[in-house]
Design brief:
The structure is a single chain. With 463 residues, the protein is of the alpha+beta class. The protein contains 12 helices and 16 strands. Strands 4-3-7-6-5 form a 5-stranded antiparallel beta sheet. Strands 9-11-12-14-13 form a 5-stranded mixed beta sheet. Strands 1-2 form a two-stranded antiparallel ribbon. It is rod-shaped and about 150 Å long. The chain starts with a helix and ends with a strand.
């Protein structure tokens, strides 16, 4: 379970999505904190008052003598507030000497008089009125060479009402709506971006999964890969080139060595056959035959491991099985074993290398005959999607089943002195065709099944 958790956490897509989500959440939190601080800070409210004074100072209307007489129509929706809430808000315009030339209807009852009156200097100021703290702002105005001073004032409780009970809920609703939109926008953008960005990685993964000893020439595609991953892909392709070269050298050495051994063994055998028949001579002939068989199987293994050695054509599989059974009938008769062929399907056509398929079937039958007791039967069944070969011998232990296709592994009950490469060759041929060769313990004996290529359980008839 811990491994599964770490695997999910190591997902690049998940980590990027989490980073997007964390960034969005942090942005929302900072936005909320900033909004709360703004709406609960009286200093900022006073700055809003100063901004309001600066904003409407340019919209003062003057008479022909240059005296302030009111405001332009576009700010009337602001000045009505001073008339509707006379005890909480007020405005007035002062001349350069500080005399009032224009004020709201109840301004006289709010503004302090005498020395307590705020001086007409740009900035913020506070004063007390009927037990209320009033906040004010002064904005100087120059018109026709004269200097005027616009002053606005509002009580603390009025400003708190406007900010906390009106502005704060509206800001909260706005932040919530913004968060939802941000989540959807970020999530959608992140999903689309990751889907597009990681698509080349899926193509790379698909290409890598097809690489095998039979397709070492395949290289990972670089087109469309993110720039940061191109060095990794190039390094992997270079490693594949070195691996292919080493594999080719190994196969060439194996084939060359086996081929070079055939001639000396043939000469030794010919010389032994000319010698008088004695027991040492017969033992030497037996050893030479054993070595010749090993060399031949090594050559077959080297050829079966090279995909370019195969020539695929349309092959009638049941016909090939019948030919292999007929070819090994003499071997079965010598071993006092009966071959029983059952064709459950007679029209199975597949793309295969005819010679390689014959070698595969021959090795399977040889292995079964060599392990079958005398007077027993080796059953060969051909179905629409698989071929089975079963003997009725002692079989093998469950622990030995995985070793059955290993190179140079031989069963304990085998009659001949083979090299243990027959089933290995069969597996290589099956893999080259995309087939699956498997072993199954029976009571009694052992069954080898060659599963032909299928798609969704339906046999593929390559016509």
């Amino acid at each position: 379970m811990r491994f599964v958790t770490m695997l999910h956490f190591n997902s690049l897509r998940l980590q990027v999505l989490l980073s997007y989500l964390a960034g969005m959440i942090l942005s929302v939190i900072l936005l909320v904190l900033a909004a709360v601080w703004v709406l609960h800070d009286n200093t900022l409210a006073r700055m809003d008052l100063a901004d309001a004074a600066a904003g409407i100072s340019d919209d003062i209307r003057y008479d022909d003598n240059g005296m302030p007489v009111g405001f332009a129509a576009k700010v009337e929706d602001v000045t009505w507030l001073f008339e509707s809430v006379p005890r909480e808000t007020a405005y007035r315009i002062l001349d350069e000497a500080g005399n009032v030339v224009l004020q709201s209807g109840t301004g006289e009852s709010i503004w302090p008089e005498g020395k307590a009156s705020p001086r007409p200097v740009r900035g913020l100021f506070d004063f007390e009125h009927n037990g209320l703290t009033m906040h004010g702002a002064t904005e100087p105005i120059i018109h026709n060479g004269k200097i005027w001073h616009l002053q606005l004032t509002a009580s603390t409780r009025f400003m708190e009402l406007m900010h906390r009970h009106i502005a704060l809920p509206l800001v909260g609703a706005g932040v919530a709506l913004f968060s939802v939109v941000l989540l959807l926008a970020f999530g959608l953008c992140a999903y689309i971006t990751l889907r597009y960005t990681l698509r080349p990685l899926k193509e790379i993964s698909r290409s890598a999964s097809t690489i095998s000893p039979y397709s070492l020439d395949i290289r990972l595609p670089v087109k469309g890969v993110p720039t940061e991953l191109i060095p990794l892909v190039n390094s992997f392709n270079q490693a594949l080139e070195r691996l292919e070269q080493g594999y080719r050298v190994q196969q060439e050495f194996l084939a060359t060595a086996a081929h070079e051994l055939k001639t000396p063994l043939a000469l030794i055998r010919a010389q032994l056959e000319l010698m008088p028949e004695t027991e040492p001579r017969n033992w030497l002939l037996h050893d030479v035959s054993y070595m010749s068989r090993q060399v031949q199987q090594l050559l077959l293994l080297a050829e079966a491991s090279e995909r370019q050695n195969y020539k695929f054509i349309r092959v009638n599989v049941p016909q090939q099985v019948a030919e292999a059974v007929a070819y090994l009938q003499r071997m079965a008769d010598a071993a006092l074993v009966q071959l029983n062929l059952e064709l459950h399907a007679s029209d199975v056509i597949s793309q295969a290398d005819k010679g390689a398929l014959f070698t595969l079937l021959k090795n399977l039958l040889e292995n079964a005959i060599q392990h079958a007791p005398e007077s027993s039967t080796v059953s060969v069944d051909v179905f629409s999607d698989n071929i089975t070969v079963r003997d009725h011998g002692p079989g093998i232990e469950d622990a030995q089943l995985p070793k059955l296709f290993d190179r140079f592994w031989r069963g304990a009950h085998k009659r001949d002195t083979g090299a243990g490469l027959g089933l290995t060759i069969c597996r290589e041929i099956a893999l080259a065709h995309g087939w699956v060769l498997s072993a199954h313990k029976m009571q009694p004996g052992l069954m080898l099944r060659l599963q032909l290529q299928t798609t969704n359980g339906v046999p593929v008839h390559n016509v």
